[in-house]
């Protein structure tokens, strides 16, 4: 029964992703959806529908089949769209290689070889390890199907299946309402405001999908959200504020800006050591100063909120120089004529900043949002390892720290690989959502 549901859902997803403007297009979408589901289910050996498989694994199997149906449908549509001839009068046609079709591949071969052996093969190996029961140094490997993934989720398959569907339906409903509303109307403005909250709806639904008992993954998920959002928000706001202040024409501005950028040259572990020396409750700098002033300095290692805040502050300090550098470069491109004209028209400093400076910094802010999120997801391991080691009671154990703790320290490669796949898919989905939300809102031209 689950196999039938998988292929029916895959066919429907294939039609939705490829198109349904004609019967031929819908039929091709059905074929692509079924093909995508068949490929991934055959690669798994249809293990998610075995008699001894858990119900949650069956739900994950249906979700994976639908995901590959979407990839096959949307991917084929994108390829066909690029091959469609255009009849624009002002089209500029590019040249073509006249030395043979193999020359582009020959010239690209060094890069392709490096990508295959150092990126694609390790990624494929990680995906295969995520379905295995294997330990570091153990000679034998056993298949676990998707059990490494189902362990991260609550044992209620109905909750696992319905929560993401409800969240996606709400997000799609907001977008559909926005497209059907007239520009300038109240409903249009409401949906425009609610649009960016779509990701929050999905994040909230995922929180209740993860297991919470016996040190479940829900704690890791919450820690990752808190530390990542705090790091990105404070580092970007602080970087923009410092860039705006240091951009003023002051004496010694070059030296001042250089000193602000220097922290970016420091590695995350070194940042963790520096903040440990400052915030340590027994021998830290702040503890010594507090003792001289007559009061006790709080021990961040014994308080979950303080521990997370310390990690965030160390990460923000590390990122400030990077954001500052790009924001200063962006401020140099803001047309001074527009600012001066707005000042003549009576706009105050806040209005000039909000209406002129911020829109001009849109492309740079979007780039920094993506790179800062990548840092907050992956590069905080060294800071956490030196500052808290996941303490207290796992309150600062984020996704990347948990992956290394389980996969390397504990030697459980299968579970570590499964969690790394989850983190990889989360970053891909979040990045794709950011690109989708930025469409039509960020202007890369000067007009």
Describe the structure.
It is built from 19 helices and 2 strands. The protein is 70% helix and 1% strand. A hairpin with an 8-residue loop joins β1 and β2. It is globular, with a radius of gyration of 26 Å. The termini are far apart. The chain has a two-stranded antiparallel ribbon with strand order 1-2. Among the domains are: 56 residues; 227 residues, MetI-like fold (Orthogonal Bundle), CATH 1.10.3720.10. It has 447 residues and is mostly helical.
- Compute the average pLDDT: 86
Head-to-tail CA distance between termini? 57 Å
Radius of gyration using CA atoms only? 26 Å
Number of strands: 2
Q: What's the number of helices?
A: 19
Query: In percent, how much strand structure appears in the residues?
Result: under 5%
Here the CATH topology of the domain at 212-438 equals: MetI-like fold
**Element order, helices and strands?**
HHHHEEHHHHHHHHHHHHHHH
Query: How would you sum up the global shape?
Result: globular
Look at the structure and name the CATH superfamily of the domain at 212-438: MetI-like
Percent range of helical residues: over 70%
CATH class category label of the domain at 212-438? Mainly Alpha
Strand order of the largest sheet: 1-2
Provide the low-confidence segments as ranges.
Answer: none
The second-level CATH architecture of the domain at 212-438 is Orthogonal Bundle
Which structural class is indicated by helix and strand composition?
A: mainly alpha
Largest sheet: 2 strands, antiparallel
């Amino acid at each position: 029964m689950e196999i039938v549901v998988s292929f029916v859902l895959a066919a429907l997803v294939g039609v939705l992703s490829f198109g349904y403007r004609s019967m031929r297009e819908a039929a091709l979408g059905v074929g692509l959806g079924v093909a995508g589901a068949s490929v991934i289910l055959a690669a798994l050996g249809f293990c998610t529908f075995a008699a001894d498989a858990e119900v949650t694994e069956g739900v994950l199997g249906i979700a994976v089949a639908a995901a590959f149906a979407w990839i096959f449908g949307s991917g084929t549509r994108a390829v066909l769209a690029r091959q469609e001839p255009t009849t624009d009068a002002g089209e500029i046609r590019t040249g073509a290689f006249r030395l043979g079709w193999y020359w582009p591949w020959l010239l690209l071969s060094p890069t392709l070889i490096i990508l295959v052996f150092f990126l694609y093969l390790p990624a494929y190996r990680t995906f295969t390890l995520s379905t295995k029961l294997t330990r570091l140094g153990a000679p034998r490997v056993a298949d676990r199907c998707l059990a490494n993934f189902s362990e991260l989720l609550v044992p209620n398959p109905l909750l696992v299946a319905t929560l993401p569907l409800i969240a996606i339906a709400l997000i799609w409903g907001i977008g559909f309402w926005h497209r059907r509303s007239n520009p300038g109307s109240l409903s249009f403005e409401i949906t425009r405001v609610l649009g960016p909250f779509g990701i929050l709806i999905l994040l909230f639904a995922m929180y209740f999908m993860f297991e919470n008992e016996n040190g479940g993954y829900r704690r890791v998920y919450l820690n990752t959200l808190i530390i990542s959002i705090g790091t990105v928000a404070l580092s970007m706001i602080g970087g923009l504020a410092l860039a705006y202040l240091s951009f003023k024409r002051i004496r010694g501005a070059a030296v001042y800006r250089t000193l602000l950028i220097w922290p970016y040259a420091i590695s995350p572990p070194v940042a963790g050591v520096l903040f440990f020396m400052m915030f340590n409750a027994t021998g830290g700098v702040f503890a010594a100063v507090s003792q001289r002033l007559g009061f006790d300095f709080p021990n961040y290692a014994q308080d979950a909120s303080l521990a997370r805040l310390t990690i965030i502050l160390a990460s923000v300090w590390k990122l400030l120089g990077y954001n500052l550098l790009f924001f200063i470069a962006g401020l140099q491109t803001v047309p001074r004529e527009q600012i001066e004209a707005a000042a003549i028209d009576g706009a105050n400093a806040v209005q000039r900043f909000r209406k002129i400076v911020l829109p001009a910094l849109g492309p740079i802010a979007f780039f920094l949002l993506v790179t800062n999120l990548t840092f907050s997801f992956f590069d905080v391991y060294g800071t956490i390892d030196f500052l808290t080691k996941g303490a207290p009671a796992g309150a600062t154990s984020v996704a990347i720290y948990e992956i290394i703790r389980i996969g390397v320290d504990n030697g459980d490669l299968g579970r570590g690989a499964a969690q790394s796949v989850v983190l990889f898919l989360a970053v891909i989905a979040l990045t794709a959502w950011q690109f989708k939300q930025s469409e039509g809102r960020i202007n890369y031209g000067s007009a």
